[in-house]
Design goal:
Elements (H helix, E strand, L loop, with lengths): L2 E6 L3 E6 L1 E2 L12 E2 L8 E5 L5 E6 L11 E2 L5 E2 L3 E8 L7 E7 L5
Parallel strand pairs: 3-10
Antiparallel strand pairs: 1-2, 2-4, 5-6, 5-9, 7-8, 9-10
Amino acid sequence: SFFTVATVSGEKNVIAYNGVSPNGDGYNDYFQIFNIQLFPNNKVTVFNRWGDKVFELDGYDNDQRIFTGENNVNQTGKLPSGIYFYKIQLGDGSKELTGYLELKNEPR
């Protein structure tokens, strides 16, 4: 597993796991962001390699409000496999977190 660690406000580590393979096997089926629930006013945004926004969600929670490789901006469904870039705003005034994730989607 790939991951990015950011320390925010002392001991509240936010860890973004960079591998997403939404194939239903229970491993990396969504973009997991450890400790994101400690920041309920968060916003998570995902961009394709051309900088187009393909996903945006307020209140990401690793439960019902998650990124599973689907485009929720223009509702085009499953995104192609590839490298995507993310931005996580925690909503607490701290610096936003940025990085990349690798999406491995099943063929359409």
